[in-house]
Amino acid sequence: MSNRAIQNLFFCFSDQLKKTQQPLKNLKAIDALTHCRTPAMGASYYRCQSNHAEVEQLHSCRHRSCYVCAHKQRLEWIEKQKARLLNVPHFHVVFTLPHEYLPVWRYNEALFARILFKASQETLQQLLAQQRHGGVIPGILMALHTWGRQLTLHPHTHCLVTAGGLDANNDWKALGNYLVPSAVIRSVYRGKLQSFIKAAFDEGELILPPTLSVAQFWAMYQGLYKKHWCVRIEERYAHGKGVVLYLARYCKGGPVDPRQLKQMNADTVTMSYLDHRDKRIKQQQLKPMDFITRLLQHVPPTGLHTIRYYGLYAPASKLRYQRSRQQCGTVEQMPSASRVDRLTMVIYCQTCGVPVQLRRRWWPRRSKGNSINREAQSVRVSDSVQNDQ
Prior knowledge:
Helix content: 25-40%
Largest sheet: 5 strands, antiparallel
Distance between the termini: 24 Å
Oligomer: single chain
């Protein structure tokens, strides 16, 4: 299936989407995914020094849920993480929001995302700071995912945690083959998440859905203390590069790879997925509008950072990070020439085959909101301007 399969689906059902009520974040995503690399986004024009025919390059939307323009962003993000990650073993920890909270999540996406990040971060840092669990400050890379394999709502955080950290003497201390006992991490995580949710409710920040009364909410809240909470600690990785590659597939470009779409028509979208229970590839069929609805529920709230760094990887821990880097090094880099080839797009003249230079750009004027005003402007730029498509 073409990497424009999702874009084509949005385009074909654009009239039906206009009749639905959508939050602003979804309207922006619909506009971006529908028009990415089409004339509606404008274009840049390149020409060689011999003034042969111009080469047109349509602009990307650069929306984080768009798979069409995510490839370059994904490669750039991977290279940055490989330069950041310490060359030590890492653990992969997954914290899941109990599904009882899903109706409340839908009305409090940004708030619940912050709570989920905070509970995951504080659980890891508090436990690893205790001497019986290592007594170290670890490096933590954390990514928020809101989907399951079948695009259902399933909020959880993926945490890449160094198998060690700086001790009280600022020396590197390895943790060995185990992070912390799973029962302990589940208990601490449950307590923190519950306390943050209660605080948000008491401060009037939490919005309850119309179908959930205050009494029902507190009954659900109390009942969750008796349930098994899902915190999964994967086996230790020799380095964090494998998890970074896994996260990169979803951190840029949305939750679905167009290659998962096996068949599309006016009535059905057939999507393949990996069932994590039996590790088998399966297929599900959805109506096109149902598929689009599932996809849109995973568009992050505007301004929400879905990738965050804590501990040694936090921007505020530069001195500690530099000390750790001196002692451990970072994940090995790919040869620089290979990186440049992958991340730098060179455009060639279709007549003489020499590299072309940017001559002018054109883009449509956009009014406030998401409508596109077809009245456009063309801007000429210096030959020295570099291509940023």
